[in-house]
UniProtKB/TrEMBL annotation:
InterPro entries given in the database record: Peptidase_S1_PA, Peptidase_S1_PA_chymotrypsin, Peptidase_S1C
Signal peptide residues on this chain, from the entry's feature table: 1-24
Superkingdom of origin organism: Bacteria
Protein name: Trypsin-like serine protease
Length: 474
């Protein structure tokens, strides 16, 4: 772990929280350099399932209902391609669909992210089931819900509508997803709606049917053709567990397009603005109530368990080891896709409790120090973010002395966004060590400091029986 001594940001945290006498104005914020980040092929929709022979698994044969729907809808389904301007070679492929009889197309943001963020290098193209093609014009993006609206040089037949009153869904009803799986040709897959998933920060619909790469951005409709959602992703660790963006979010972005005078000229600024709005909501929700405190040895550690954030624990107790490590980790189960190389808007917490009965204090101190040094905060070679600016200090909150390192990295392409990493280690015990880490990705500088203060203040010693007795006597 490389630590560079800077004007102490930790002093700023402590002073603002009332724990130190240093002036907050004397603490300097990390620099905010401006540079560029590469846009590479989207990875939100994972690779397709394969057969034991390693070949792509075919979609199940469509039912008669699916065949009828596809025959009616196929003229309004498009393939959306991202091409290198130089040579017009294909870089990524997704799907989209024409709304009503207009020339507006709904697709996923991650399908268009390359030419949205790097229009000097990439350009968009549409291809329909009849082989017609043309360039696309990007009108709007919603990075938080993974949606985009395009304008193309042809009109829809009117099959896909987005009425003010959307279809009501019941768990178990059939849905039909359409798109261009694996760039093999246009297809339809059949599955069932199984409720709203709340583990993502924004609602998604669970679809128990196959959605393969290339189908991202395609429509998922009910048996009568009403749009229920937009194909977005699938789980690799399950069978036929796929996800849809609810149609109401597509309705919202289409309404926005209707009212805007002209399309933005800088979608990087649009994405940055949306990410800043997300991080404000994310941090406010996380800190809307005090963090839960869990016991680890003689310590209490802060965690957050919610629909969006899940926690796990484990221990490596082994008879042949002279020390034991207990782990407790909490992390948000979703992140915001920005580009093929960048996902952000996520918070994670980790605690490790090391203890030993078989080592002397010197050897245990070496073990604990090695564990602390092994933490990684990123490199200076990352094209997406600046190198980490780190500051180290020894601090004490209410009752726990800590060694703490705070590292901050600025986003090169999205002004106002940072990654924060706070690492702490207890220094009050000779044969025990609590090492904790907070990671906040894609937050404002102010919210990064706010999270760090709360985290530092929440680490504590467990109340002793005597202290509990005194507290009850008050």
């Amino acid at each position: 772990m490389k630590v560079t001594r800077l004007a102490s940001t930790l002093v700023l945290i402590w002073a603002a929280a009332g724990h130190g006498a240093a002036s907050a104005a004397a603490a300097a914020a990390p620099a905010q350099p401006v540079a560029k980040a590469p846009a590479t092929a989207p990875n939100v929709t994972p690779p397709a399932a394969t057969t034991p022979d390693g070949e792509a698994a075919p979609l199940p044969p469509p039912s008669s209902a699916a065949q009828h729907l596809y025959a009616s809808a196929k003229n309004d389904i498009l393939q959306v391609r991202s091409l290198l301007k130089s040579g017009r070679t294909q870089s990524s492929v997704g799907s989209g669909f024409l709304i009503g009889t207009s020339n507006l197309v709904v697709t996923n943001y991650h399908v268009v992210s390359q030419f949205a963020l790097d229009p000097d290098t990439y350009v968009g193209e549409w291809v329909d089931t009849g082989g017609q093609r043309g360039n696309v014009e990007l009108l709007a993006v919603d990075v938080l819900h993974d949606l985009a609206v395009l304008r193309v040089s042809r009109n829809g037949t009117g099959f896909f509508k987005m009425p003010p009153q959307l279809a009501r869904l019941t768990q178990g009803q059939y849905l039909y997803s359409m798109g261009n799986p694996l760039d093999l040709g246009f297809a339809i897959s059949e599955g069932a709606y199984n409720g709203v998933i709340a583990r993502s920060f924004y609602d998604q619909l669970m679809f128990t049917g196959p959605i393969n790469s290339g189908m991202s951005g395609g429509p998922s409709v009910t048996a009568d053709g009403s749009v229920a959602g937009i194909n977005v992703s699938k789980r690799l660790d399950g069978e036929l567990v796929s996800f849809l963006v609810p149609a109401r979010y597509a309705q919202d972005i289409l309404n926005k397009v209707e009212t805007q005078q002209k399309a933005p000229t800088d979608f990087t600024a649009v994405v940055a603005s949306q990410l800043l709005a997300h991080q404000t909501a994310m941090v406010n929700q996380l800190l809307s109530s005090p963090l839960s405190l869990k016991p680890m040895g003689p310590y209490q550690v802060p965690v957050r368990e919610s629909e969006q954030m899940r926690c796990w624990g484990r221990s490596n107790v082994k008879a042949d080891k002279p020390f034991t490590v207990d782990d407790a980790s909490c992390a948000m189960e979703s992140a915001i896709f920005v580009s093929g190389s960048l996902q952000t808007g996520q918070i994670a917490i980790r605690h490790q409790f090391l203890r030993s009965a078989g080592l002397d204090k010197l050897r245990f101190a070496q073990l604990a120090s090695a564990s602390f040094r092994n933490e990684h905060f990123g490199s200076n070679k990352d094209s997406r973010l600046t190198g980490p600016n780190c500051t180290e200090d020894f601090v004490k909150n209410k009752d726990l002395p800590l060694r703490a390192v705070l590292c901050v990295r600025a986003y090169r392409k999205f002004a106002g966004l940072y990654d924060f990493a706070l690492l702490t280690a207890s220094t009050d015990q000779g044969l025990m060590s609590l090492q904790s880490r907070l990671d906040a990705r894609g937050v404002s500088y102010e919210n990064g400091l706010r999270l760090s203060r709360v985290f530092l203040d929440s680490l504590s010693l467990k109340p002793t029986a005597e202290a509990a007795k005194k507290g009850g006597a008050k």
